[in-house]
Amino acid sequence: MKDLGTRVPHYRASAGSVYPVLKELESEGLVECELHDGRKTYTLTRRGRREAAKHPDIFERFQDSQQHKTAVNSGDVTTSLHRVLKAAYGAAEYTVGRSREEASLRAILNRTAGQLERLIRKNTQEGG
Cα–Cα distances in Å, from 34 out to 21, 39, 49, 118? Predict the structure, then answer.
């Protein structure tokens, strides 16, 4: 797990998250486990290497998801604002021609705008 943590920045490996996945991969014949000096070592099988070759972007997607989790839990307001704007524009594109989804998005955006406006008013009233 230490090796995984050094290879994948922003990833905090834990036995509770890693071993169940490895066990599943092993049951699917994608990895095999060997004991070396009392430690388990997992290696891709031939089938696992073939599957990995079919999906070369899988590691990049994993890394991106870990960086996303880190960004969500840290960073400044600008990072959060960028995330909200990106999600809002993506949702707006998705809802074109879908009246129910568009109404839902409009409600979310109006609710969010109202919360932000209340925050500004509260700060202004408090003299900040």
Answer: 16, 8, 17, 59
Length of the chain: 128
Distance (Å, rounded) from C-alpha 22 to C-alpha 42?
A: 8
Residue 107 amino acid letter: A
Burial 11-42 (b: 16+ CB within 10 A, else e): bebeeeeeeeeeeebbeeebbeeeeeeeeeeb
Q: What is the rounded distance in angstroms from the CA atom of residue 105 to the CA atom of residue 95?
A: 8
Instruction: Judge if 50 and 107 occupy the same domain.
Output: no
| Tally of domains within the chain | 2
Residue numbers of the domain that contains 101: 75-125
- pLDDT-derived band at 13 (thresholds 50, 70, 90) equals low
